[in-house]
Amino acid sequence: MFILKNSSSISQIARLRSPKFRQAGSNCTLSFWYYNYGQSVGAAELQLLVDGLKQPTVLWRTYYNEGNQWLKAVIQLGRLPYPFQFSLDKISLGFYEGVSAIDDIRFENCALPPPAISCEGPNHFWCRDTKACIDSLFVCDLVDDCGDGSDEDSCNPDLQCNFENGLCNWEQDVEDDFDWIRIQGPTPTVNTGPLKDHTTGTARGHYLYLESSEPHQFLDKAVLLSPVFNPSGNRTCVFRFHYHMFGKEVYKLSVFQRTVSNTKGWLLWYKFGNQENRWIRQTLFISSSKPFQILVKGTVGDGFTGDIGLDDMSFVGCTLYNGNLPTISTTTSGTSVPATLPMNNCTEKEFVCRASGHCIQMIQKCDFRPDCSDKSDESACAMEVCDFEDKGLCGWHQPALEEMSGNYSIRVTNTFKWQPGRGANLYPEQEQHCPLTDHTTCTEEGWYLFADSSNGEFGHAADIATPVISLTGPRCKIVFWNHMNGSTIGSLEVLCKSSNRTSKLWTQSGSQGPQWNRAEVFLGIRSNFQVIFRAKRGVSYMGDVAVDDITFEDCSPLLISGKPCTSEEFMCANKHCIPKNNLCDFVNDCADNSDESPSI
């Protein structure tokens, strides 16, 4: 059937009505082929008209000339329990030549499930009136799969939410960048987001959506928090939800589980990119030995056609926990330091050992040699070995990030920065340029440190530094493993900062392949300095710099024993003893260069 415009009247409407249908099953879809061609052919839209509802629901639209071709439209109808029909409206412009046509209209999977003679087994549910046999996972999921509503009877309202009357017992996270929005009908931006909810299949129903337009920026996050649930025990808690990800710039939807309230938890599921204009059901099986909570996180893409929808979220096999999740301390790990110092006679230029009150020289603090019996002089210092397996940073810190976080007017969420990571938490797009396994354990569960290039812009730098190191010995070196893989990898530098002077000790740029590579940087004798790892971002997100297993080797300073040197040793001008094999080897082993003197 086609429409040929041959009049110059403005805003003419051609309307084609379908027969009436009594109802449709939960998997019902409508498809047709359409043709909309001409210089100013105008728009067309398909509307759903449901008995008892005054407002029509727009199911499909085309706005303009789509070329001399037939195109296919597939429309998700879902469960419609009341009589309905369709109206195809073609709206013309004033002066144009154009042709609109429709052909091959098809309904699929629109019947209710057939009755069954029997329905046995714990994984099946026998519908009360229709006698259909359905999977038990479809019971109490806010969808009338039976056709008589019996699969949605006697359900716990605290375990499901269709957002028709608010957020139920879900909450907006206060630690994210913005909130999910409850809405009816289409989202404000065309060519993205749902046109209708999933519960009713009409513009009357409500759902949640993530708005991707300004002022929201790329990688801004909106997080929804579930109520807290009891440990699953021997049973499995099942989480069902429906999501909608339609638009050229849709980015990411992910689900996390946590047992501690001030953490992000661990990843259960994720989905990237445009999934077409449809609601999609997702089922997750959850087990936990502790009380837990579910987090649903939406992330904004790089543009305004990236709206994401959520609807009909339900749990089965779960029970609510009467309490809150515990929190963990986020203080730096290490030897605890009492708030008050023990009795001592130390001067301001001396360090007080926390347990004994013994005094040592300040230069003996953070020198890789414990001089206090309780090792308190090395407790808040750079660790000799750091493998990041406890997700801690081993005393390393990010000065620029700390300055920014102190200024509340600056957003640090999307800053190019160092952070702990592991292969188990990667998304598909990251697998091409971020380590799949760490170096320590060679598993996806092992942790490493990486600079996430999905944040920041070309040329941005991220620094992570040690605390001040008081003194090192002549053979001190830093050994670490690095991973630099990706088409737009930036660079990694090792710097030494002393007072206001910073010098470059080592640098590497460009892709080095999909493996961990060993690097060694000589430090030698230095005093009152910091080691800095600096990652520089490449031209795009396709290249993350990672490091693991950072080790300071042979870094404790020379110790004067007070004993005379042996026949196998050389006495330095400063009274240190070193092996004679270390003479004239171009290394300042004595710390005063006397072992490299031409007069030896």
UniProtKB/TrEMBL annotation:
GO CC entries: membrane
Q: Which UniProt keywords apply?
A: Disulfide bond, Repeat
Ranges where the MAM domain occurs? 1-112, 159-320, 384-557
Q: Which Cys pairs are S-S linked?
A: 140-155, 366-381, 565-577, 572-590
Q: Check the record and name the Pfam families matching this protein.
A: Ldl_recept_a (PF00057), MAM (PF00629)
Record's keyword annotation contains Ligase: no
InterPro entries hit by this protein: ConA-like_dom_sf, LDL_receptor-like_sf, LDLR_class-A_CS, LDrepeatLR_classA_rpt, MAM_dom, MAM_domain-containing
Enumerate the PANTHER family for this protein: APICAL ENDOSOMAL GLYCOPROTEIN PRECURSOR, MAM AND LDL-RECEPTOR CLASS A DOMAIN-CONTAINING PROTEIN 1
Name of the protein described by the UniProt record: MALR1 protein
- Its source organism is Falcunculus frontatus (Eastern shriketit)
Q: What is the lineage of its organism?
A: Eukaryota, Metazoa, Chordata, Craniata, Vertebrata
